[in-house]
Design a protein that fits this description.
It is a single chain. The termini are far apart. The chain is 28% helix and 39% strand. It has an 11-stranded antiparallel beta sheet with strand order 6-5-4-3-2-1-11-10-9-8-7, with helices on one face. It is globular and about 55 Å long. With 221 residues, it is α+β, with helices and mostly antiparallel strands. The longest helix has 28 residues.
Length: 221
């Protein structure tokens, strides 16, 4: 009996030792996560200044990718190409591979006028490009601000509220002109160039604009 009791005690002690060892092993091998430190106010201001300065020097640019646009029960998605010739003129081409439909919007940021090509019945012109787009496609798109948003900055001509930055000093979200803009993915820029957005979401009421930007091109200043 004594031998049995002694043997049982030894087994219990061995089990406890194994359990303690397992716990120690988990504690030493489990990955640890640390929150990314927030930038100081001075560092954040410097990154904002550098981004604004770089974007101001590169006013001619283009990107290509995919877009999903909807307003209520009307929506569509497809390839998008945006060409900004300077601070004024822009061209936006959208094509839907499934329906084989495509159109091009030519706009002027100063006059806010626009022209849409590729519609049934021929091109249409309008004094306000945003209204023309809404009338012809049913899509509500903030064309006056979107050119700034896609480059990772609020539009300078309009006040922005509720601005939130991520740990790298990049905009995470803000509100402007009745829209809420969110950035969910960024692409690191080469040396001397700021990071650029990859995924952008903008919403206003039942209107939604989602962009996946695949390629950027900037003309030399």
């Amino acid at each position: 009996a004594v031998a049995e009791e002694t043997g049982g005690m030894i087994l219990r002690l061995a089990a406890r030792a194994l359990m303690a060892g397992a716990l120690v092993g988990c504690a030493t091998t489990a990955p640890t996560r640390t929150a990314a430190p927030l930038l100081s106010a001075e560092a954040l201001a410097e990154r904002q200044r550098a981004r604004s300065e770089w974007l101001g020097l590169h006013e001619t640019w283009s990107f290509s990718g995919r877009a999903a646009i909807s307003k209520g029960d009307k929506g569509g998605s497809g390839r998008i190409e945006w060409r900004q010739h300077d601070q004024r003129r822009y061209e936006i081409a959208l094509s839907a591979p499934v329906t084989r439909q495509s159109w091009r919007l030519i706009g002027d940021l100063h006059s806010e006028a626009g022209r849409i090509e590729g519609l049934e019945g021929g091109p249409r012109d309008g004094e306000l490009a945003e209204d023309l787009l809404l009338e012809t496609t049913g899509w509500d798109v903030p064309l006056q601000q979107l050119g700034s948003w896609v480059r990772g900055a609020p539009a300078s001509e309009y006040p922005a509220q509720a601005i939130v930055h991520d740990a790298e000093g990049r905009p995470a979200s803000f509100e402007q002109a009745g829209w809420t803009v969110r950035y969910t993915e960024w692409r690191p820029g080469p040396v001397g160039q700021p990071d650029l957005p990859v995924r952008i979401e903008a919403a206003s009421g039942d209107a939604r604009v989602r962009l996946l930007i695949e390629d950027w091109t900037f003309a030399s200043p």
